[in-house]
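[recover] target loaded
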């Protein structure tokens, strides 16, 4: 089934049919990976443009393309690109579209993905636009929840940490709006609460949520989605220092609990290492799921 879009800039574009198709394809791609990959995208080129720091997203996009027999060309770092010379995002996209069959871009400016997609000649994927959206992370998060909990409908979801600047929690909240009978617990200090654009969306969907500043009540949820406090978004470093260790999840917190622990990574102290060995610690499995999900998206956007 073809997707309803050519470019993916936001999870708000996605329909339930889109997510069902992507998750089903991702499960298929796990089988492809187990067989050592395929040549499905042989002759196709992915342009991976990363103007902001990335490890998991960039490497998993590249691994996804290579696993499907395609090739990758890259641009690393704003200072090494023509954007540094003053070239517009629009002109960069027009040029890169001459070289590649599909583009994935990360950029520090919110809204940059929409600008890029508006002129891109080839399918475009937002790999993160500042504090805006990160749709492929949300898709792999959804895939992880489905695998770990066997369902998505009816779950209690807690999101903890930097909910103001954390694009992963914004994207995932919008995506979860496609599902039924969910409830949300948002845990953040008052300076970093979930933006109104997300809470108003959930209210429109009639999905209940509570906003609190203590971690303990969230431990009763089915999914505990931890996030780091994002140093790079703070203009005042002293404010970051004050807030950076506000929540730290430990193995003791999880004694007798059934929550699946997720994190988009990297972590910076918000999950103690003694959690890593617990069966409920899903965050490294979550990171691995990025490859089949991005394989699925690349294949579907390229018509396979």
């Amino acid at each position: 089934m073809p997707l309803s879009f050519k470019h993916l800039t936001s999870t708000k574009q996605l329909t339930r049919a889109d997510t069902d198709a992507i998750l089903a394809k991702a499960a298929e791609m796990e089988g492809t990976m187990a067989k050592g990959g395929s040549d499905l995208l042989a002759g196709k080129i992915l342009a991976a443009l990363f103007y902001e720091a990335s490890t998991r997203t960039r490497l998993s996009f590249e691994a996804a393309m290579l696993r499907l027999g395609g090739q990758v060309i890259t641009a690393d770092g704003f200072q090494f690109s023509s954007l540094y010379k003053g070239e517009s995002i629009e002109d960069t996209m027009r040029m890169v579209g001459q070289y590649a069959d599909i583009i994935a871009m990360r950029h520090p400016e919110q809204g940059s993905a929409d600008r890029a997609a508006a002129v891109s000649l080839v399918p475009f994927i937002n790999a993160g636009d500042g504090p805006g959206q990160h749709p492929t992370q949300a898709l792999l998060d959804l895939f992880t929840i489905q695998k770990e909990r066997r369902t998505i409908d009816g779950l209690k979801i807690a999101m903890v940490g930097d909910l103001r600047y954390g694009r992963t929690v914004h994207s995932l909240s919008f995506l979860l709006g496609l599902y039924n009978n969910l409830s949300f617990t948002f845990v953040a200090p008052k300076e970093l609460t979930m933006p109104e654009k997300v809470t108003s969306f959930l209210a429109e969907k009639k999905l209940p949520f509570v906003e609190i500043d203590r971690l303990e009540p969230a431990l009763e949820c089915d999914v505990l989605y931890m996030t780091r406090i994002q140093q790079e978004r703070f203009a005042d470093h002293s404010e970051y220092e004050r807030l950076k260790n506000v929540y730290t999840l430990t193995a003791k917190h999880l004694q007798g609990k059934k929550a699946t622990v997720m994190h988009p990574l990297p972590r910076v102290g918000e999950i103690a290492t003694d959690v890593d060995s617990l069966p409920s610690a899903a965050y490294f499995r979550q990171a691995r799921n990025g490859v089949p999900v991005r394989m699925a998206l690349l294949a579907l956007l390229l018509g396979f």
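[recover] notes: The longest strand covers residues 45-50.
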